[in-house]
Amino acid sequence: MSEAGAAAGPPVERAATGPAATGPAAAETVAAKPRATVVALDVGGTSMKGAVVDAGHTVRARRSFPTPVADGPDAVIDQIGTAFEALTSEAVGLGLAAPSAAGLVVPGIVDEERGVAVVAANVGWRDAPLASVLGARLGIPVALGHDVRAGGLAENVLGAGVGAENALFIALGTGIAASCIVDGRPIAAGGYAGEVGHVSVDPEGEPCPCGGRGCLERVASAAGVARRYTVRSGIEVAGSAEVATRVRAGDPIARAVWDEALAALVTVLHTTVTLLGPEVVVVGGGLAEAEDLMVGPLEVQLDKRLTFQRRPRVVRAALGDQAGCLGAALLAWRASGQRVAP
Ligand SMILES: [Zn+2]
Fold first, then answer.
1. CA angle 268-285-44, nearest 5°?
2. Which end of the chain has the lower number of beta carbons within 10 A, N or C?
3. Dist. CA 103 → ligand 1 center (Å)
4. Integer distance in angstroms from the first to the last C-alpha of the chain?
5. ∠ CA(157), CA(161), CA(164), 5° rounding?
């Protein structure tokens, strides 16, 4: 978005195309003042994580808000505006500068260039022009991004993938999605890139809500692993962490479910690595928390399958559940016309 500002940044910042932003964007990029801030919001299906972030990428205030999905998409959009206004008041109350831009990241298909949330099953909107609607309400530029792509950007600029011009970030949470950075450029494809959770690993496999069969995320998401364990064992578990505990305790059903998830992930990663040639694969989401059972084995098994391809490092994400919010802040800085380091 800003040539001058990007010149001093790492490769991903230099080549990245900025998201759509509306509002009184500065014509030229200037260095951010020490007290400068942006506000960031990561919208999920049940709650929104908000933050006030300064020019050193430090989170100065953090606040959560409910996502009123049951009240419809207009209510969610109104709540996003209210959340940004509350975060703005927090920044000013802390003696910081009023935020110069807002970064908003949401799930689903997101067209960053146009600032439009195309579709999100769990929030219910369709073709919602969030950047322009919220920009008009807040009077500052609003950058819209996709939650996982923004998380991947944050890991690439501030987290586990720093310095990689070619990086794959894969989030193994309720679903599975990926963010791909190739030659320093995040791939968006109008919002359709990165949906590796819906690559079929078994054409005869179980149906997926997307309409497909045997999708990767049915087998290898944190939610999928927990559900498959319960179906086979008859034992209810709170989540994938409990399945990991049972793997460590020698439960053969837990081991089988876990190994099937690993095998499916290796198959899809093998294809993805062959296609995109990443130097690093950053693994995030709930399933990556069992690092010794997931991230390490993924690297070993992937390495065995690769022949001529570049062999990527496979590492656990460093920013945890803050990645989306920090990524939203990076998008906001780009929209603000102010330069921040790195
Ligand atoms: Zn699917």
1. 115
2. C
3. 28
4. 16
5. 85
Centre of ligand 1 from the C-alpha of residue 100, in Å: 39
Q: What is the CATH number of the domain that holds 76?
A: 3.30.420.40
Give phi and psi for 204, each to the nearest 5.
Answer: -100, 10
Residue 223 CA, ligand 1 centroid: distance in Å: 13
Q: What is the pTM of this model?
A: 0.88
Nearest-angstrom CA–CA distance, 245 and 116: 41
CA of 231 to the centre of ligand 1 (A): 19
Span from the CA of 268 to the centroid of ligand 1 (angstroms)? 14
Q: What is the pLDDT of residue 19?
A: 47
Question: What is the pLDDT, as a whole number, of residue 166?
Answer: 97
Is residue 201 located within the same domain as residue 176? yes
E-assigned strands of the chain?
21-22, 30-31, 37-43, 47-54, 59-66, 102-106, 109-111, 116-119, 126-128, 142-146, 167-172, 176-182, 185-186, 280-284, 313-316, 338-339
Does 310 lie in the same domain as 193? yes
Range of the domain at 50: 35-152+322-335
Query: Does one domain contain both 188 and 270?
Result: yes
Query: How much of the chain exceeds pLDDT 90, in percent?
Result: 83
Distance separating alpha carbons of residues 229 and 245, to the nearest angstrom: 12
Res 341: pLDDT? 83
Cβ-based neighbours of 288, under 8 Å, separated by 6 or more: 172, 294, 295, 316, 317
**Residue ranges in the chain whose pLDDT is less than 50:** 1-20, 22-26
Q: How confident is the model over 271-312, as pLDDT tens digits?
A: 999 999 999 999 999 999 998 999 999 999 999 999 999 999
Q: What is the pLDDT of residue 4?
A: 36
User: How far, in Å, is the centroid of ligand 1 from the Cα of 222?
Assistant: 15
Query: Distance from the CA of 298 to the center of ligand 1, in angstroms?
Result: 22
